[in-house]
Specification:
Blueprint: H1 2-16, E1 22-37, E2 45-61, E3 64-71, H2 73-76, E4 81-88, E5 91-95, E6 101-112, E7 115-124, H3 145-148, E8 153-162, E9 165-172, E10 192-199, E11 205-214, E12 226-239, E13 243-258, E14 261-277, E15 280-292, E16 315-326, E17 330-332, E18 335-350, H4 359-363, E19 367-380, E20 382-383, E21 423-424
Antiparallel strand pairs: 1-2, 1-19, 2-3, 3-6, 4-5, 6-7, 7-8, 8-9, 9-10, 10-11, 11-12, 12-13, 13-14, 14-15, 15-16, 16-18, 17-18, 18-19, 20-21
């Protein structure tokens, strides 16, 4: 990974020194307070921290492009973000901090007879499922995060777009990060793959289907349970100068297996929607997601990582209704601050198979509340879609892209791009 970082950063530096280039950069962070009633301690717990501290940059020179996203959650919330129902990478009822190097890729893009082509390599998102929840209209991640995305892998991903059809294929290492600063198992590169096909049947509408085969994501040495994954989603996102109407419906399924025998079967359905007018945004999300239950450590929010064996205590079913409301942003040039609140009503019940997990024994009840209040702080330019590269990027109608912007610098020529990276100015109404 050190070599990838050096090469990519050097490439970004070369682009920024060139007079014929396009680039953008921005940062964000969310001071957040979350009370949960109850959570894994069987009591009301309130925590505050800085979540989603990120730096994002893009650069392009002719057909060459670079993507960089740094995530500093390992410094600001190593204990994880309180999120009842959330799980993954050794955390339970908390969202784990993501890797410091969230995305770091360099790629080449071109057009051949009307078909946009791209090839990217580095660390980032495998072509599978929906966008990172971080760039959607809710602060809390859905429980299905690890069913609907495959992220922070060393990968090579190719994409082609012809008319309304986009195809992607990626190969990567199956192992998940053990910690924000852990290096991937380079010897495992190529043991996993994923593919996604996207159809754009009408303006503002996006349909996508994905399949993935991931080898031993929980056990770095490669002797853990493998995963077969599927995902389908439909997305609608219409924006005007002062409004936005957004919707996403998603189904995801993961089978964990060893030697061809299915050990655990996990499913999720989710629907979320948001409407914004005059920079006031309201959103609603409903999901039902299966979660594998593991024996917690002395810390009730942690499970063994890697797991001590290949078994679990059964499956629980989480049904969560979340309401989010965001106030108009406070703007100062390229800086913005958007206050928001979220309220979630949570139910945990037995899954299939139910196993030994009992919500009443763990939490004292099967019905819970979770509240969140915070401020989205942003400066510069942040891209709206995370997890798509090159020809796979879906430019939103009416948004600014690499092909028609020059970073707000007078006299800088706009560079053509066969598959532009979609991102919004921080001053545009109804942006997060």
């Amino acid at each position: 990974m050190r070599m990838v970082i050096v090469v990519t950063v050097a490439t970004l530096g070369a682009w920024c020194d060139s007079p014929a280039q396009s680039w953008s950069a921005g940062a964000q962070a969310i001071p957040l307070v979350t009370p949960a009633d109850p959570t894994a301690t069987r009591a009301v717990l309130t925590e505050g921290y800085l979540t989603q501290p990120m730096f994002m940059a893009h650069a392009g020179w002719r057909s060459l492009h670079g993507v960089l996203t740094l995530n500093f959650e390992g410094l600001t919330q190593m204990r994880g973000e309180l999120s009842t129902g959330g799980y993954g990478e050794g955390y339970v009822d908390r969202r784990h901090p993501h890797a410091y190097v969230h995305e770091l890729l360099a790629g080449v893009e071109d057009s051949v007879r009307g078909t946009h082509l791209s090839l990217y390599a580095g660390r980032g998102f495998a072509p599978f499922g929906s966008d990172d929840p971080m760039v959607r209209p809710f602060e809390k991640y859905p429980v299905n995060h690890h069913l609907a995305q495959i992220l922070e892998r060393v990968l090579v991903v190719g994409a082609a777009r012809a008319g309304p059809v986009i195809g992607e294929l990626g190969v990567f290492n199956g192992d998940e990060p053990l910690s924000p600063g852990s290096a991937p198992k380079y010897s495992r590169f190529g043991d996993s793959w994923s593919s996604r096909v996207t159809l754009l049947p009408a303006r503002y509408v996006e349909l996508a289907g994905s399949v993935a085969r991931v080898k031993s994501p929980e056990v770095p040495d490669g002797h853990g349970l493998d995963q077969n994954k599927w995902d389908l989603y439909a997305r609608y996102d219409r924006r005007t100068a002062d409004s936005r109407l957004y919707g996403l419906a998603e189904w995801a399924h993961t089978n964990e297996h060893a030697s061809g025998a299915i050990s655990t079967s996990l499913s999720s359905w989710m629907g979320e929607a948001a409407v914004c007018k005059k920079d006031v945004m309201a959103g609603l999300r409903l999901e039902g997601t299966d979660r594998p239950e593991e024996e917690p450590l002395a810390d009730p929010f942690r499970t063994p990582r890697p797991p001590s064996d290949l078994s679990n205590l059964g499956v629980s079913r989480w049904t969560i209704l979340t309401l989010a409301v965001s106030a108009p942003r406070l703007l100062l040039k390229s800086f913005s601050a958007r206050p928001f609140v979220e309220v979630a009503r949570i139910h945990a019940g037995p899954g299939d198979p139910p196993g030994l997990f009992d919500a009443d024994l763990r939490y004292g009840t099967s019905w819970m509340w979770m509240f969140s209040a915070g401020v989205r702080l942003k400066v510069g330019t942040i891209h709206d879609r995370m997890g798509r590269y090159g020809a796979a990027v879906v430019p939103e109608p009416g948004t600014r892209t690499r092909s028609n912007e020059s970073h707000d610098m007078p006299g800088m020529p706009a560079m053509p791009s066969p598959a532009p990276m979609t991102h919004h100015s921080n001053n545009a109404a109804c942006t997060l």
